[in-house]
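Sorry to interrupt, but I need a hand with the structure work. Could you write out one complete protein record for me, on any chain you like? Just paste the record in under my message, thanks.

. . .
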Amino acid sequence: MPRKMHLAFDVSYAHMDGRWRMPGSAWKDRRYPDVDTFEEIARICERGLLDLLFSGDGTGVPCTWQGKPDDAIRWGISWPRQDLSPLMVAMSRVTKHLGFGVTYSTSFMHPYYLARHLNSLDHVTGGRVAFNVITSTRKSDFENYGFTELPDHGERYDRMEEFIEVCRQLWDSVPADAMVWDFDSGVVGDPSKVRNVDHEGRFFKVRGPLNTPPSPQGRPILVQAGGSPRGIKAAAAIVDVAFGADMALELQIRQRETFDRELAAIGRDPQKVGILWQQPVVVAETEAEAVAQRELLLTAIPREGAGVYLSHNSGYDFSTLPQWFTLGELHEQIVATNASPVGFVHEMALRFGRDMPISRDDFFDHGLRAATGYQNTLAGNPAQVADRLEEVFEATGSRGGFMLGHTVSMPDDLTRLVDLLVPELQRRGRFRTAYKGRTLRENLLDDE
């Protein structure tokens, strides 16, 4: 019997980067962040038996491009955003099984606050919360929290690992059997079972315990998307399920192998830890329809909008590029700023070679395809898309699945995914036909 995939959907960009005005988008008639629209999206995801509805996040307005936020605001590039927790609470009230992934940065938050906050979300959703653990890489985010420059890349991961260590201790500080609630005696809790954390580390000092009752899952599902060697090592120590980028299959295979080695090195079974590979996707009844839908992405934003997006995510002002340069030189400059050593330029250097000269115009031609998600968007009929997903799933160990998303228009493309792709995967025995568990942990970590 073939192993089943898990499927999540990334709603992060449904209203940004020009998608709000694409044909079939709900945002042509409504304005973000309309709660009814998000509730509609959640219902569609649950109808498709998806594991998780996910949203990434950032807390700054992109301002790396030309040193100002004007074009980001003008073209809606990674702007506007808001904390998705309240919307996910609303979506949880119209669903019963769908999980919800929220993103917070360990670079800025305090573990006690966030452990408490996520505990509360897990209660409200009935045990359906996942925490996407990130270390921020964007200058605008850091400036909003009082930083004048980015901390060292490795130090950000050191802080992340200690952050999660503290959160885990806090979530374990009040076990389920500590709650008594005895009406006759009036006893609420057993003090012998509630324990302090008394953590004093390099970044945090926390006494504990949490002052909240334990949540339905005990703690939220932990996910993380580190792609650099240091990031993969951190993911091995932290995650229940990892995220992986939408890159060439040979790079995905290499990352799976590296991830497995890191898991084994700390005594974790690689067979028990999956990767959800990001996969932008457009599915339609015919290949021609899907390809035509994907082509709309190239009309979503202008070139300067693509420059804003790439500059924001790379931490480098691409408006300053000379007429000719090499990708290796550009990548070294990006790494020197303490931004992430992996990303668009890194992937281009792997594809075309570090020493190949490239013109500014050619760079932005590639950049527009990357910023809109066009170059990695899988477009086809249900059988074609399912074939590709199966190929990647098997080549990377048949553990985990896919983070679908970055569609052209919402909710129309999501509806086609649920009505066309999901039945094809079910026919092949690759996806569930019913939810088996009550919590996200029970459904997402089912390794059937």
Q: What stands out?
A: The mean pLDDT is 94. The domain at 6-295+377-444 is CATH 3.20.20.30 (TIM Barrel). The two ends are 10 Å apart (CA to CA).
